[in-house]
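Quick one:
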Amino acid sequence: MHLSFHGAARTVTGSKHLIELNDGTAILLDCGLFQGMGQVTDKLNGYFGFNPQRVNYVVLSHAHIDHCGLLPRLVAEGFEGKIFATAATMDLCRVLLMDSAHIQEQDAEYHNRNSKEKTEALYTEDDVTKTMSLFKIVDYNEDFEISDAVTLRFTDAGHVVGSAAAHLSIREGDKKIRLSFSGDVGRYGDLLLKSPQQFSQADYIIMESTYGDSLHKDLEPIEDALLEYIHQTCEVKKGKLIIPAFSVGRTQEVLYALNGLELKGKLPDVPYFVDSPLSLQATEVLKDHPEVYNNGVKEVMKRDADPFAFKGLRFIERVEESKALNADPRPCVVISASGMAEAGRVKHHIRNCISNHRNTILLVGYCEPTSLGGRLMAGEKEVDIFGERLQVQAEVGAIKSMSAHGDCEDLLHFLSCQDPQMVKQVFLVHGEYEVQQKFALRIRAKGFKHVAIPEYHERFELE
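Output:
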């Protein structure tokens, strides 16, 4: 049996890990799109490193595009097997993959209008429709037989709605191998979701490591931080507060925190806009799956049926309405995708606001270092936006405690249910290499002797 790594290898995007059994059965863990990798992004997304036609099954941890975004491309290149996921993950994938296909087709059309070298979209909406027909729902904590030799169990990973850690029991002859894939691990004590669940003893663990050298817990409560930024920006400076936020997870957390301020009578009386049609759809999916809420949210819902709505909130859908926000002189809060500020409507809002000292750009999640959000977070005083060099006069802030990824203590907590002596190998994925090296030292200090940091396309034998 072999395990190879075709994405999220010494980087935080493009998650793809392939298990190949001796009888030829191939199981792909996640099939994510590479994002924010500069000029090599298209090349990385155009080459899997394996033959999609030879993959029998896909096990999907969650619906973020860097974990599911190449599924339609996999199908377009010949994959015809089943895709196993939780019900909420399937519902989110339907929304996010259709949006992604629309973007792929738009980008290809724009390129072909402006270049002699023609290109094709990575995939189309028809590819997404075919992909969704291959999904098979697997409930949390259910032992599900993928094949005669492979059993799958999902446990809640607490990362986003529907997210799961995947645990495979694989039989080959007289041998049985237990392999666990963390997916992305959420926070213990998350604002909305249940904490990550414990899982049975594994022989091999594929472990994410995004924040393997960071701690979030020393930062101020989210509601208090948001209140201070709104007060200082909108009420004192009379400016706009621009919050780049991922459509899935982060936007809903911000809305929940703002709703909490309203319930306490503290929410400033200014307009609040969510400028992302995708965020509206993702919020509706979250409302459709209350089984993922933690006890705190369930208590709030006893007195507030909709914990993501409050006075002054408006969802923006049409492009014309989005453009009108830039001309609106009123102090306001604009929550818009993408979270790294690398694309989408929020990039236009930042361009409009970045050179005015009254405004604030508030980053509330992980930003890849080369992305616009990452460069702003690093303190750059000039940035390029749509080919224009702009001075950063607006205040740039961050609430790092809002990350959907667990910090190093959360990751170690996730592993604490394991007997390190019984784990043959831990493979660290989904992290920057320097961070992974530091996290590997922490894991070894906990007794996990064999820790590997795979390179792109590297292959390992599992015994």
